[in-house]
Write a structure and sequence with these properties.
Rossmann fold; NAD(P)-bd_dom_sf; alpha/beta; binds nicotinamide-adenine-dinucleotide; single chain; seven-stranded parallel β-sheet; EC 1.1.1.47
Length: 265
Amino acid sequence: MLSVEKWLEGKICMVTGAARGMGKALAMKYAEHGANVVLMDVNKESVEAAAKEIEALGVQALPLKVDVTSSLEINHALDEVESRFTAIDVLANCAGISTSSLILDVEEEEWDRVFNVNLKSVYLLSRRVAKNMINNNVKNGKIITISSQASKIGELGNGPYSASKAGVNSLTQVLGLELAEYGIAVNAVCPGYVNTEMIQQVFQKRGPIEGMTPKEYEETLTSQVPMKRMAEPEEIAEFMLFLSSEKANYITGVSLTIAGGKTII
Ligand SMILES: NC(=O)c1ccc[n+]([C@@H]2O[C@H](COP(=O)([O-])OP(=O)(O)OC[C@H]3O[C@@H](n4cnc5c(N)ncnc54)[C@H](O)[C@@H]3O)[C@@H](O)[C@H]2O)c1
């Protein structure tokens, strides 16, 4: 029988937004490739359920309820991770939220919330985890963040989100430069439309802004994708797995679009 090569055997991989969607798909891939996985999410029940699925794959899973906008909660969680596993090999920032308002209608509170979840959390977590990697002499550490095609093209009714994700791309470049001397590679992926609960909420809320039903809006958006469909979460996770592995040691500072040809930049 053909044995499957495991790319992350024995590594410690930490995933935020791990309760569902792309974060969960990635956590599952890490486990399939032999990693022990720390799962963080603001949704306690779901993140614990995801951890059970991961343990069934024969690796260790540590679920933690964490709001990634809180440095206090992050620091408590990292203390727990370090006392259980010591060194962290991979951080995947997958937690994110979207908006559905025109800039003229966006309240300051909504703007701040989106920036805190999508961008500030990446700074808080990357800083804390990079220090862990440096202090423990981790070889070829990896930090990967889910940005969005919205960071490159802007999206109507999605202003704070687009701007926050453009910030993620910029932070990825800076972190790539500053952490290169420690052998830590930092990259982002910029997905187009991905079949998760987040995109279904977008269809529900933004369709009416565009004068369409959610179904009409979904069909309009997918018809604009050259491949004529959304991505499945596993398709994004597959490339993030590659970026998390030793195969990608020399790739750093890039924000790569995965959008079925819609955004060719
Ligand atoms: N779905 C898409 O079409 C799409 C496209 C491009 C980029 N993205 C990005 O991909 C990432 C994952 O999105 P998804 O589609 O899987 O979304 P999702 O809504 O299915 O999952 C997001 C997860 O993040 C968690 N989360 C939200 N706020 C949090 C907080 N403050 N602290 C901790 N956890 C928090 C949620 O509980 C949820 O489990 C996000 O960063 C999103 O912006 C999504």
